[in-house]
Amino acid sequence: MKLRNRVAIVTGAAQGIGAACARALADEGAQVVVSDLNEVGGTAVVQQIAARGGMAAFCRADVADRRDARALVDFAVQRFGRLDILVSNAGIVHGAEFVDLAEEDFDRVLRVNLKGPFLCGQAAARQMLAQGPRADGGRGGVIVNMSSVNAVLAIANQVPYTVSKGGLNQLTKVMAVSLAPHGIRVMGIGPGSIATELLKNAVLTNEAARSRILSRTPLGRLGEPDEVARIAVFLASDDASYLTGTTVYPDGGRLGLNYTM
Q1: Residue 16: how many CB atoms within 10 A of its CB?
Q2: What is the 3-class SS of 176-241, one letter each residue?
Q3: Residue 161 catalytic?
Q4: Which residues, in sequence order, are CB contacts of 162 under 8 Å at separation 6+?
Q5: What digits encode the pLDDT tens for the residues 88-99?
Q6: The pTM is what?
Q7: Which one is catalytic: 161, 242, 249, 259?
Q8: H/E stretch holding 18
Q9: What is the rounded distance in angstroms from the CA atom of residue 153 to the CA atom of residue 169?
Q10: CA–CA separation, 62 vs 46, rounded Å?
Q11: Which residue, of 65, 93, 232, 234, has the greatest Cβ tally within 10 A?
């Protein structure tokens, strides 16, 4: 198992990509704190992990609240003894044309999508700096920020989401540079169109919308949450020991596409 003796936190883990990441990390031996505002969904993920023979616990947290971010890290340490991996996955969207977007909706999305990874990443890094080596002698830690292809590409009616993910890519870089001397790696994952409830509710509202998405995806299909989760496992493991400060894009080829297909 690639992640034996390691403790991980996954935010936004009650469903979709976050839930898939929590399960995949646990399958590789990590003890996982499943965090979300959705207690019912988060508890269900913990039960799924237990049924697969893994170890997990649920902690409710608002990632954009400094006290909750600190309490989340403290919970992981109290429950499992340390913290080695943070997957900052929690995110929200709000659709509106630029001229119609309300200030409070812009602030609300950036609060979760950008301020949240900052606060959770800072709390996690402080714990990683303070603790000693793992049972296997390993030190440092890994932080994975869940970005999007929309950090690079723009969708006209997803203003705050696009802005937040662009900022998150820069946050990933500056965190990586700052924490590299301490052996803490920071990476991003920028998924394309993944078959999650978020995508279905925000984008896949009809067959025309589905056809439009597939027309800009060379592989011709939606990605699956488990495909993103396997990348998170790789980045969190020693297999990615010389990777930091960059974002990996599981997007079905979308970023390389010049014309719709």
Answers
A1: 21
A2: HHHHHHHCEEEEEECCCCECCHHHHHHCCCCHHHHHHHHHCCCCCCCECHHHHHHHHHHHHCHHHC
A3: yes
A4: 150, 151, 153, 154, 155
A5: 999 999 999 999
A6: 0.95
A7: 161
A8: helix 16-27
A9: 13
A10: 18
A11: 232
